[in-house]
């Protein structure tokens, strides 16, 4: 079974929802998608981002300060 077939539509976020969760602009989310830093599915002219992809990105970007 392909990765696309395993994606649950209820776990997909809009660009606006991702921006809100990450506290960044929608343009920043679009840049992350187009650069390949966050995987996304194209639905018509819009994008949907798996919830886990956002969680993985934030975990990888986490920097602990001294």
Describe this structure in words.
By secondary structure, the chain is an alpha+beta fold. The protein contains 3 helices and 3 strands, in the order E-H-H-E-E-H. Strands 1-3-2 form a 3-stranded antiparallel β-sheet. A hairpin with a 2-residue loop joins strand 2 (41-43) and strand 3. Helix 1 crosses helix 2 (26-35). The longest helix is centred in the C-terminal third of the chain and has 11 residues, at 51-61. It is globular and about 45 Å long.
Give a short synopsis of this structure.
Helix content is 44%, strand content 17%. It contains 3 helices and 3 strands.
Q: Strand content of the residues, in percent?
A: 15-25%
Question: What is the typical, i.e. mean, pLDDT?
Answer: 90
Helix content: 40-55%
List low-pLDDT spans. Answer: none
Radius of gyration: 12 Å
Keywords:
66 residues; 3 strands; globular
Would you spell out the secondary-structure blueprint of this structure?
Blueprint: E1 12-14, H1 15-22, H2 26-35, E2 41-43, E3 46-50, H3 51-61
Antiparallel strand pairs: 1-3, 2-3
Helix pairs in contact: 1-2
């Amino acid at each position: 079974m392909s990765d696309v077939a395993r994606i649950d539509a209820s776990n997909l976020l809009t660009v606006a929802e991702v921006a809100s969760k990450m506290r960044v602009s929608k343009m920043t989310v679009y840049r992350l998608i187009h650069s390949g830093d966050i995987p996304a599915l194209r639905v018509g002219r819009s994008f949907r981002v798996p919830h886990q992809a956002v969680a993985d990105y934030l975990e990888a970007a986490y920097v602990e300060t001294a």
